[in-house]
Design brief:
Barwin-like endoglucanases; 26 helices; alpha/beta; Rossmann fold; Dimethylsulfoxide Reductase, domain 2; 6-stranded mixed beta sheet
């Protein structure tokens, strides 16, 4: 049986008449995701792109020399041959490059394919670097605020830190109390960037509970873990995590429970933080009574939790969700500071971890192999890259200055956007603002397999093969296997691989040899695997030769023999011999460097900043509900929203919104009703599901429903399908990280009366 991989699992493929019929989960995964069931039917459905097309108005006006960009998203498309499409694109790239390569935005973003060679953004970046570079992006929508703050506090970049965090097997044995800020989500842990081998979260949590451990689930929405009397749900007011942590820290410090020996030997700057904690700076002690008013949790409960954390081996979990908010950097920094006060960092089962329950690889048991990636070459515009979540601002405000990571930068003047392997109409906040921004570039080019909202809002759309229609291999650090991705189906209709497209463009622009290095696609897959073998050997992990691997399909990757993963165990044992990469070599509870930036929204130590949009603000008089736009259960972001698993979870064809029965009753809403969700940024329809798993004052609408406006191309149009990003804020988390603040969002809802508009998200546009 052929093998393949997705972001949510490794599979054997059953093929009939050259087409994928079924995916069978890898036998080593004892808790496989159901998401694979969506794929076979979706590969050939009505939402699939089949040939190159150009937007009618762009195609017509470009031939006149006057590019029309007003009707993106509203116009039909013109069918093109591949030769026409590639020649048009090569000419357009040449024209735009006359303004300078800084006129091209090729940051792109998205999960794309789990394959190492066919990773779409890597292919795009290698191509544009061969022709002089382009403006790129930095950071991730998932954890940009954490990426910004963690290096200042720990000296580590966030991603390597997460790979090194304490594994579930250690926590199962050692952790007595797991305090999960933002909760632990099984649905989020369905996925990993390079594919999942064994889904570990539910089993890891259960093993910890079976060993006598306890889990405190802190979040406005109850975690989707199996019920257990050893799990306590504590629903605070959304985005009050920092205040709660400060209240706990105040109890530790004031009751003599803080580990002052650890703070002295392994940290710097605690005294400055303690002055703030006790109110010596601002006259406001951050005691449990202060925290309780902000969090809407009992003061006695906070105090008892603090004492329990000091008495037990405690792991502090910091989910990615708590930092996708106004001042999101502070939640991560305060969590690390709280762990330092407990003094358990570097002990088995104690300390902190960022991203447990956010992605499967965090806490995984597999070997940490430095997997080779497609070399991207040199981009002379690398230092001009923008924070990924500032896409709309870049397009709307060319030449405007903005603050980022202690520096002042300028937005470039973008004339051409090239996007592959993702969908900003899923990821980006405030879609109506994005629509206004999307009208600014002269040309938008997209490589895409499906007619999602990005493809519908492009000028030139090139149909790409899916990961099941090409050869590759997939792996992720901490995952327990590497898998050969055999081609299990022929590319549909005229679709091609991204690599083929860029080879043809490179030929037309005179850089084919530079782009390919004389290798075919098969050569590249073998070459990158062999590089990975060499990297693995340095880490004492032996991988089979390529042909043996390809024939085997799946190769397990155990951790190094005799090793267990405990974050900063060596640093704890001897901080002088094993210093961190901070200026002090220690955990920087107070950062002199950050303080020197003199930022209004990020000080020298962790602080409470009141969010601008939350249930404690005056805006609740107009919009009294806090929207949690969490990850979905039936898909990865927007991938395979058209598949049967995702569609089965919808209500009357719309995305399902969880509403507390108290809030629903007050509005005359019953389970199964359609509701209009709205604020001053936009509105969408959703299907009501009444649930006690969301706290009062909270509604939960997952991301990823394909944007489906009632009036295509019109700013402010109702999304018929339930995309929450027509509602979310597009403002940076702070001028340090400039991450997304989507979770800081207030809305109201009302029952929808009458016949709803028909959902057309999965129908292709008109072709003329």
């Amino acid at each position: 049986m052929h093998t393949t991989a997705t972001h949510w699992g490794m599979y054997g493929a059953i093929v009939e008449n050259g087409r994928l019929k079924k995916l069978v989960p890898w036998s080593g995964d004892t808790a496989p995701s159901v998401l694979g069931e969506s794929i076979p039917d979706a590969l050939g459905g009505t939402s699939r792109l089949r040939f190159p097309v150009a937007r009618e108005g762009w195609h017509r006006s470009r031939l006149r020399g006057d590019i029309d960009k007003r009707q993106r998203g509203a116009e039909p498309f013109v069918r093109l041959s591949w030769d026409e499409a590639l020649s048009l694109l090569a000419d357009e790239l040449a024209r735009v490059r006359e303004h300078g390569n800084e006129s091209i935005y090729a940051g792109s973003y998205g999960w794309g394919s789990p394959g190492i060679f066919h990773h779409p953004q890597s292919q795009l970046h290698r191509f544009v670097n061969c022709i002089g570079g382009a403006i790129g992006s930095v950071g991730a929508y998932s954890f940009a605020a954490a990426e910004a703050i963690v290096p200042y506090v720990t000296g580590y970049a966030l991603r390597p830190l997460m790979w090194a965090q304490t594994s579930w097997s250690v926590m199962a044995r050692e952790t007595q109390l797991f305090v999960a800020f933002g909760g632990l989500s099984a649905k989020n842990s369905q996925v990993s960037p390079g594919g999942v081998a064994r889904h570990a979260l539910v089993g890891g949590v259960q093993a910890m509970l079976d060993s006598g451990g306890r889990l405190v689930d802190i979040g406005p929405v109850r975690s989707d873990l199996p019920a257990s009397n050893r799990i306590e749900w504590a629903p605070p007011r959304p985005h009050s995590d920092v205040a709660l942590m400060l209240g706990i820290a105040h109890t530790l410090a004031s009751e003599g429970l803080a580990d002052r020996t650890f703070l002295q030997s392994h940290c710097v700057g605690y005294e400055r933080f303690e002055s703030y904690l006790f109110g010596e700076d601002d006259g406001v002690p951050k005691c449990v009574e202060w925290a309780a008013k902000i969090c809407d949790l009992p003061a006695n409960w906070i105090r008892a939790l603090a004492r329990e954390m000091a008495a037990k081996r405690t792991m502090i979990g910091l989910s990615w969700s708590i930092q996708r908010a106004d001042h999101g950097e502070q939640a991560v920094w305060t969590g690390i500071t709280l762990a330092a006060l407990l003094g358990q960092i570097g002990l088995p089962g104690g300390g902190f971890g960022i991203g447990y329950g956010s992605c499967n690889f965090v806490g995984g048991e597999g070997g940490v192999v430095p997997w080779a990636t497609l070399p991207k070459g040199e981009n002379p515009l690398l230092d001009r890259a923008i924070p990924v979540a500032r896409l709309s601002d870049m397009l709307l405000h060319p030449g405007e200055e903005f603050a980022f990571n202690g520096k002042i930068q300028k937005y470039p003047d973008i004339k051409l956007v090239y996007w592959v392997g993702g969908n900003p109409f899923h990821h980006h906040q405030d879609i109506n603002k994005l629509l206004r921004a999307w009208r600014q570039p002269e040309t938008v080019v997209v490589n895409e397999p499906f007619w999602n909202a990005l493809a519908r809002h492009a000028d030139l759309v090139l149909p790409t093969a899916t990961s099941f229609e090409r050869e590759d291999f997939a792996a992720t650090a901490n995952e327990e296997a590497v898998v050969a991705m055999h081609r299990v189906s022929s590319p549909l209709a005229e679709s091609k691989t991204d690599h083929w497209i860029f080879c043809e463009l490179a030929s037309r622009l005179g850089v084919r040899e530079k782009f390919t290095e004389g290798r075919t696609e098969t050569d590249w897959v073998r070459h990158l695997y062999e590089q990975s073998c060499a990297n693995a050997k340095k880490g004492k992990i032996d991988l089979p030769e390529f042909d043996d691997f390809w024939n085997a399909g799946v190769v397990p990757l155990p951790s190094r023999p005799g090793e267990e993963r405990v974050l900063w165990q060596a640093f704890r044992s001897d901080p002088h011999a094993n210093p961190l990469a901070t200026p002090s070599g220690r955990i920087e509870i107070y950062s002199e460097r950050l303080a020197s930036f003199d930022l209004p929204d990020c000080k020298g130590h962790a602080c409470w900043f009141e969010p601008r949009e939350w249930l404690g603000s005056l805006l609740t008089q107009q919009y009294p509900l806090h929207l949690i736009s969490s990850q979905p259960k039936g898909r990865l972001h927007g991938q395979y929203d058209q598949g049967k698993v995702s569609r089965a979870l919808k209500v009357k064809g719309r995305e399902a919104m969880s509403i507390n029965p108290f809030d629903a009753q007050a509005r005359g809403i019953g389970s199964g009703d359609l509701v209009r969700v709205f604020n001053d940024r936009g509105a969408c329809l959703a299907g009501a599901v009444l649930s006690e798993d969301v706290n009062r004052g909270i509604v939960q609408l997952p991301v990823g429903a394909w944007y489906d406006p009632q009036e295509p191309g019109t700013v402010g149009s109702l999304c018929k399908h339930g995309n929450p990003n027509v509602l979310t804020r597009d403002e940076g988390s702070s001028c340090l990280g400039q991450g997304p603040s989507a979770m800081s969002c207030l809305v109201d809802i009302q029952k929808w009366d009458g016949a709803p508009p028909v959902v057309t998200a999965f129908n292709g546009p008109r072709i003329v």
